[in-house]
Amino acid sequence: MQTDDANLYLSGTNSTVDSLNSDFYGRFPYPQLPYSFDYLENPDFERIMVMQDIGDWKHTTLPRMPRVWVAGCGTNQGIITALRFPQGSILGSDLSQTSLDLSTRNMNALGIRNAWFKRESINTVPYTEEFDYIVCTGVIHHNSDPMLPLSRLSRALKATGILELMVYNQYYWSGPAGFQKAVRVLAETTESPDFVLELAIAKRMLSSLPEGRHKTYLQNYRGSSDEVLADLLIQPVLHGYTIASVCDLVQSSSLHIVSHCPNMHDAALGILSWEFAFEDKELQARYDALPDQARWQITNLLRFDQMPYLWFYCMRDDSPFERKTLEVMNAEFLQTTFSRVETTRRSFRRDERGEYKLSPKAIPYPSRYLKSNQQQILAQIDGKTTMGAILDRCSFDKNFQSINSIRVALATSAFPYVVAPGGV
User: What is the CATH number of domain 14-30+62-170+239-324?
Assistant: First the structure.
């Protein structure tokens, strides 16, 4: 039985939904092009930090020249990934030829030479153990049966590879999904879509909603482009997931979750990790003692509508990479010596004509926007002293929550301030 926390009126078969998504994103290419495309002048920086995200302090999981697949690249994620991994070989796949044409045009304008784009469905690709790293964010939940594209991703991943996977948090997206279904009922398009009519009705609804949850959530999108509004308000098919259901989905595809993926979307919301802090110490101790996925499930249930995305790194079940709990990852973090890292960032900025030009100045990276306790730790980093000894010197608690937050805030791709030996 359908519920209004998912938008499945048009779900049909996977091939039918492929056709719908091709038409939809051909008309409304998404995401809208960014103000700038950025890259780091140290070509190995991003690769090293991804490995630290999963607790690979020796930096051996990803090869120096990785084969990368951006499965569902949209208008810009193939370009962003090519700039992140300039020594890699990047394939961007998408159903929308419009999105691929925009990607190709901008890739050529930026002088990118390590990427190519292909129109194809994740549901039907033949790839088998071809990629060291796969990026698939915000894609599989727009399929009729997300299990099929995820199984294709699993098959395409090398045994040693890493999958970066993001799906929508059901609790957060139940509102937009309900709005999408309401639009189709009002437009009488629950059997066959009419995207032009639906967007027109959605815009009118947006400007005349009564006070309530939908109005509060959607009012920030007034004045947005048609592409942004269409993706939010009339997307053809949308599934949402909880931690429990996404874990089941991943495990059914012969994969396992390695760790939460730190990302700038969560960082902008002040979310460092999927750990929850209780004021009650006894409750905190009980929570901390649970397995990782049980803790994350509790976080998901208690923060229900505050976290838009479930964003994780996954690996194949037969991966030779040792499965590490966060407790083990944090213990290794304490035993590791780190160096401070610096590089510079360059930007291709979009001008008034919509063309990207390389900015003349390089900017130091990462920016030093740190909390005082993080600054105190960073000042002690010398490449010789273990992190545990530094925390002792700074009189920091070394409980699970404290160590984990420090690890995420200093040694991950979203907050890349320190690197283990042999890194960048």
Answer: 3.40.50.150
